[in-house]
Amino acid sequence: QVQLVESGGGLVQPGGSLRLSCAASGSMFSIRAMGWYRQAPGKQRQLVAFITSGGATTYAESVKGRFTISRDNAKNTVYLQMNSLKREDTAVYYCNLYPPIPAVWGQGTQATVSS
User: Fold this and answer.
1) What is the C-alpha to C-alpha distance for residues 26 and 19, in angstroms, rounded to an integer?
2) Beta bridge partners of 92
3) Which of 21, 82, 88, 91 could join 40 via S-S bond, C-beta 3.0 to 4.6 A?
């Protein structure tokens, strides 16, 4: 069973940056596609980006050119570098496999963009 722990959220001004981390336990991390998702207040959770086992990446249109997903298989960790943050990026950010497995959702990490 995979367990995931997200970290790195916080309060940042518009235009600022945050780097989120997701530490995974369990075997076979390196062969699984991983995704970052977010849920803003009053909205459904949505996919932000995912990365395949081979390192290919895909992004939601709203974050293209600003966010970068990466992974370190030796550390069983996936990252989300978020630059040029906007107020509408405020959300709880979660990682999960891609496609997501409902039983694996963790607590997430809150990212708030505000002046």
Assistant:
1) 23
2) 39, 110
3) 91
- By CB atoms closer than 10 A (0-12, 13-18, 19+), residue 90 is middle
CA dihedral 41, 66, 69, 58 (to 10 degrees): 90
DSSP string, 59-96: E-GGGTTTEEEEEEGGGTEEEEEE-S--GGG-EEEEEE
Mean pLDDT, the chain cut into blocks of 10 residues (115 residues total): 92 98 84 95 97 96 98 94 98 96 93 97
Q: Hunting for tokens 């496609």 — which residue is that?
A: 99
> How much is the pLDDT for 101?
92
